[in-house]
């Protein structure tokens, strides 16, 4: 079963071709094999949730295949969209103003007051 076509397909890195790849370590290093830790060290990934940028080469794709369950791979476009969305979420928003007092009474305009006085006089 281990030599099935599905496993061969699953082992390839499913990334659209891009000249640069952004690789993020998403799982921790404790408990991983020494070979995987050395591969991540070669890719300059030493801490969780850190992102590095690499040129797309066959050797890099081979390393990614080896540690695919520990990393997230993004193309340049995907990375830029994600960073822009994060910046929008962190952007300053106008303050919310909540007033619990009733609004002050608005003064009546002079024309409306004159009509009201004329109606009261009749």
Summarize this structure as a short list of keywords or feature phrases.
Ribo_uL30_ferredoxin-like_sf, three-stranded antiparallel sheet, rod-shaped, 122 residues, alpha+beta
Q: What does the largest sheet look like?
A: 3 strands, antiparallel
> Separation of termini?
101 Å
At CATH's second level, what is the architecture of the domain at 14-90? Answer: 2-Layer Sandwich
Name the shape in a single word: rod-shaped
Largest sheet strand order:
2-1-3
| Count of runs of 4 or more consecutive helical residues | 5
**Strand segment count:** 3
Q: Look at the structure and give the mean pLDDT.
A: 76
The proportion of residues forming helix, as a percent range, comes to 40-55%
Sheet/helix structural class: alpha+beta
How much of the sequence lies in strands comes to 5-15%
**Estimated radius of gyration:** 31 Å
* Residue windows where pLDDT falls under 50 for at least 5 positions: 4-14
SSE string, helix = H, strand = E?
HEHEHEHH
Question: CATH H-level name of the domain at 14-90... which superfamily?
Answer: Ribosomal protein L30/L7
CATH class category name of the domain at 14-90? Alpha Beta
CATH topology value of the domain at 14-90: Ribosomal Protein L30, Chain: A
């Amino acid at each position: 079963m281990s030599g099935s076509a599905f496993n061969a397909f699953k082992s390839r890195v499913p990334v659209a071709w891009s000249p640069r790849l952004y690789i993020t370590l998403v799982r921790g290093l404790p408990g991983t094999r020494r070979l995987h830790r050395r591969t991540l060290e070669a890719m300059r990934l030493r801490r969780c949730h850190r992102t590095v940028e690499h040129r797309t080469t066959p050797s890099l794709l081979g390393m990614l295949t080896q540690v695919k369950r520990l990393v997230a791979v993004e193309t340049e476009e995907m990375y830029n969209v994600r960073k822009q969305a994060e910046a929008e979420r962190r952007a300053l928003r106008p303050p919310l103003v909540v007033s619990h007092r009733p609004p002050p009474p608005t003064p009546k305009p002079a024309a409306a007051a004159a009509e009201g006085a004329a109606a009261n006089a009749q």
